[in-house]
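Request:
You are asked to prepare a plain-text protein record giving the amino acid sequence and the C-alpha cells, at your earliest convenience.
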Amino acid sequence: MSISKFVSDCFDEGMRVRRDVCRAVLITSLVWMMVDVVVLFHFIDSGVSTKTATKIRAERRSIDEIEYTADIETKARLEILLKGLSFSKDGPGEMGSPVHIDPSKEQERKEKFKLNQFNLMASDMISINRSLPDYRSSKCRESATRYKNFQLPLVSIIIVFHNEAWSTLLRTLHSVVNRSPLELIKEIILIDDLSDRPYLKKPLDLYIQRFPLAVHLVHLKQRSGLIRARLEGSKLSKGKVLLFLDAHVEVTQGWLEPLLYRVATDRKRVVAPIIDVISDETFEYITASDTTWGGFNWHLNFRWYPVPKREMERRNHDRSAPIQTPTIAGGLFAIDRQFFYDIGSYDEGMQVWGGENLEISFRVWTCGGSLEIHPCSRVGHVFRKQTPYTFPGGTAKVIHHNAARTAEVWMDEYKQFFYKMVPAARSVDVGDLTERKALRENLQCRSFRWYLENIYPEAPIPRGFRSIGQVIQPRNGVLLWFKCNFIATNFCLKMILCGCGTSISFYCFYLGKQSV
C-alpha cells in the first residue's frame, strides 16, 4: 500500500484509528526512508574510499618505518659514542688537574693529537662533567650578591664549530649548563660550519635534546668561516644579549652574571671574561693573571700585556673591578644584541678567521662604546700552538686580507706601520670597502689617533712621525742580516727591535746636530 493511499484510508474511509497514531506512523516511515538513502550512498562510495584510505595508511606506515629505522641507527651510533666518554666526577682531570698518558700509548697519542691539535686522548679520559674549583677571589664572591636583586637580561649563547672533537664540544655544553643560572639563558645556538665528521651530524642532533634548555643546531651548507658563521647564529638569536664562545672551553662558577650585569648597566659595553688556559697537552686548567689586558703589535697580532699603572689607579687597585682594555681576544665576549647590529656586527668581507677581534675592538672604542675584561668571570680555553684547519689560499693570505681590511678602514695614516711591517699585505686584494667606510662615517666614529691618545697610549705606535723605514747595518763591506725598524719623529730617529716593538736605542737629532 502506498503512503498516499494509507493516508486516504485513514481519513476518508472512516477507519476508527486515532489521528495521532496515524501521524506517528507517517513520521516513522519518512525517517526510515532517509536512513535507507544514507546507507545506500555509503556503500556506493565505500569501494573508492576504502582503497584510498588503505593506500594512505600504507604509505604512512612505510614512512614511519623508515624514520624509525633511521632513529634506531642514530641512537645506536650515539650510544657507542657515549660509551667512550665519562660523565662521572671521579676520574682523571678532576678539579682541573692534568692528565698524563701512559708512555706505552705515546704513538696513539701523537696520531690523535693531529686531528685537533690537542691531546684528544686526555680529553676523552676526562669527565664531560669535570669538576673545577671556584677560581673567583673572595671579593668577587662577595660582590656576586648584587646580582640576586638585579633583573639580568636573557642571553643567547652562540658557539661555532668545525670538526670539533666530540669530548671537548660536549664538555663545553655541559659546563655551561652545570655552572650557569638556566633561567638567564634564552638559548644555546650551535653553528656547524660544514663539519665532515659523522658524530657532529645526526648523533649531535639527537644528543642536544637531552639538555634542560633550548639548544638549536644549524648545519651550514657551505664552509663559511668563524665570522660569517657567527653572523648566522646572531640572526637566529632571540636573547637581549649575545654571548660568543668557542667550542673548546670550560666555564667556571659565577662566570655569566658579571658579564650580563655590565652589559645591562651600559648597553654600549662589550665585556669579556678572563680567559684561562686549558693545556693542549694535559688539559690542566691554568688560571691566567687578572692584571693583563689586550693589546696588539705592528703586525696587527693580538697580544696580552700587563695592565699599566694608570688603569690600576683608575680602578682604585680593586682587583674585582672591570678592566678597560684596548682590545679583546675575540673568542669569548658578551654584547648587547641591538648594539652589535647598531655598530655594524662583523665585517662580512673578512674571510674565515683572524683579525676580526681587532677590527671590532677599534670600532667599539672609536664609535662610542667601550671594552672591558671582567676579573670575576673566568672561562678556560684550550689554546693550541697551531690551527688544525686549512685556509683557502693559505693561512697567511687570509690573515693578511683581514688585517688589511682593518687597517684600511680604521687606522687612517697609521696603516703605514702595518704595511711597513707586513709588506706582503699590500698585494692582497682586500675587496670592496665601501660599506665599511660608509659605516664609519655614518656612525661619526673618532680617529685612530684619538684611540691611541686616549685608549691605548701604551701602543708601540708613536702618535707623531715623519717617516717609517728600516736600517740595515753593514760591516767591513759585508751586509749583515740584522734589520731594525726606525721611525723618524719630529726630534728623534727611534730604533725598534723587530717583532716585539721594544726600543733598543735612540739616535736623536736636534737642529741638524747629532746627539746621542
Remarks:
- The chain has three domains: 3-61, 109-382, 467-515.
- Residues 116 and 389 are 8 Å apart (CA to CA).
- The two ends are 139 Å apart (CA to CA).
- The domain at 109-382 is CATH 3.90.550.10 (Spore Coat Polysaccharide Biosynthesis Protein SpsA; Chain A).
